[in-house]
Each structure stands twice: as structure tokens, then as C-alpha cells.
Write a structure and sequence with these properties.
Elements (H helix, E strand, L loop, with lengths): L7 E5 L3 H13 L3 E5 L2 H10 L4 E4 L9 E4 L4 H10 L3 E4 L4 H15 L1
Parallel strand pairs: 1-2, 1-3, 4-5
Length: 110
């Protein structure tokens, strides 16, 4: 079996036991699974091959997380803040707003 017809899933989490659990369960269901325990590793895998589904821990060491949304209601902004997003960028946005948001988030992580 070449495996090319099976949906490919990338699991990303810095907690090893979580990755192992996901890999074991999803492989048993017949999916082709790749796993990464660092955001940088996940990005490398995504550059090399396409995935049908990403299962991602949103708060990874060394990686910032910015939410883009057209639904910037107070409830959604409060929830995103509670979840730990580093920045919320409201759509539609201009190129300069995007640049400013990215610069701000990366500067805060430096």
C-alpha cells in the first residue's frame, strides 16, 4: 500500500505523551500521520509535503500566535485573549496594519 490515498495528518504538540496518544489513535484508524514536538519542525514538514489536516497545540514554546478574524466581537476578542493569542488582527486589514501587528508580536517575543 503506497499510502498516498490515505488522508495525511500532522500532529504538533510540545507534550510528548499527547503526540504519542494522537499518533497511536489516528494511525490505528488508518490515517498517515506525521508528528512534530516543535513549531519549527512542523513548519519544515509543511514545506516538504501537503497535509489534509493539522492538529496543533496553539501555545508552543518559541512560537508566537496571532489570530486573524473578521468576527471581532467583544466575546471573541475576550476568548482569544483568554486562550493566550499574542495578538488579534481584525479583518479586513491593510498591509500596514498587518506589518505593524507582525512587528509588534515579534518584538514582544525577542
Amino acid at each position: 500500500m503506497s499510502g498516498s490515498s490515505r488522508p495525511k495528518i500532522l500532529v504538533v504538540d510540545d507534550a510528548g505523551p499527547v503526540v504519542i496518544l494522537c499518533v497511536n489513535v489516528l494511525q490505528a484508524l488508518g490515517y498517515a500521520i506525521r508528528a512534530a514536538n516543535r513549531g519549527e519542525t512542523a513548519l519544515e514538514l509543511c514545506r516538504k509535503e501537503p497535509f489534509d489536516l493539522l492538529v496543533v497545540d496553539y501555545k508552543m514554546p518559541g512560537m508566537a500566535c496571532m489570530l486573524m478574524t473578521a468576527h471581532g466581537t467583544p466575546d471573541i476578542i475576550n476568548e482569544a485573549t483568554r486562550l493566550g493569542f499574542d495578538y488579534i488582527l481584525l479583518k479586513p486589514f491593510t498591509p500596514s496594519e498587518l506589518r505593524g501587528a507582525v512587528d509588534k508580536v515579534l518584538a514582544s517575543k525577542a
